[in-house]
Specification:
CATH topology of the largest domain: Peroxidase, domain 1
Order of helices and strands: HHHHHHEHEEEH
Number of helices: 8
Oligomer: single chain
Largest sheet: 4 strands, mixed
CATH class of the largest domain: Mainly Alpha
Radius of gyration: 20 Å
Distance between the termini: 28 Å
Strand order of the largest sheet: 2-1-3-4
CATH architecture of the largest domain: Orthogonal Bundle
Helix content: 55-70%
Number of strands: 4
Shape: globular
Number of domains: 2
Strand content: 5-15%
Structural class: alpha+beta
Low-confidence stretches: none
Length: 179
């Protein structure tokens, strides 16, 4: 996944620069979400990975699937990715674009995954601490994942803090296997 992130960064930066210059951040956010969802569909994904099909044909089929959601520039973007054999990059490009967009809008999306429901007081305290640390407005979403056993995982931009019991057990098992 790290390789896809590295390879997709120039594409995300280019799309972001274009979207920012033309004041179309919301439009490109929607376009990239549509392309990511379409390319992520299992049948479409298998088709895009088929080596026997030429890149322009793959691009055209994906454009047809997305239909009126794409304008001329976004269709050209699909064709550029196809020419460069990079039709697997829609999801990481969309993710990086959203990070750039959030930075531009001075917002930080934070996800808290916890073993048990988080109280409103805990959410408010965490939000306040993160806003102070990152000097941005924080949009916080939380969900419960009982498989964590206890504790929580916090994802804030590129930072992941794993304070879950499951994470600690996994680290312990890994260290025991190395010994």
């Amino acid at each position: 996944m790290a390789e896809l992130t590295t390879v997709s960064r120039p594409y995300a930066n280019a799309v972001f620069a274009l979207a920012k210059r033309e004041k179309q951040l919301a439009h490109w956010s929607r376009v990239l979400a549509v392309l990511s969802a379409a390319a992520g569909d299992e049948k479409v994904k298998r088709f895009l990975e088929t080596p026997e099909v030429a890149a322009p044909v793959k691009a055209q089929k994906l454009i047809e699937i997305c239909g009126d959601e794409l304008d001329d520039r976004s269709r050209r973007f699909v064709r550029v990715l196809a020419e460069n054999q990079r039709l697997d990059l829609f999801e990481p490009v969309a993710e990086q674009f959203e990070l750039l967009k959030a930075q531009e809008e001075r917002m930080l999306e934070v996800e808290v995954v916890s073993a048990y429901p988080v109280t409103d007081t805990e959410i408010a305290g965490l939000k306040q601490a993160l806003e102070k640390k990152y000097e941005r407005d924080v949009v916080l979403a939380s969900r419960v994942d009982a498989s964590l056993i206890g504790g929580a995982i916090i994802r804030a931009g590129d930072t992941v803090i794993d304070g879950s019991v499951r994470g600690k057990l996994d680290k312990l098992a890994e260290s025991l296997l190395r010994s």
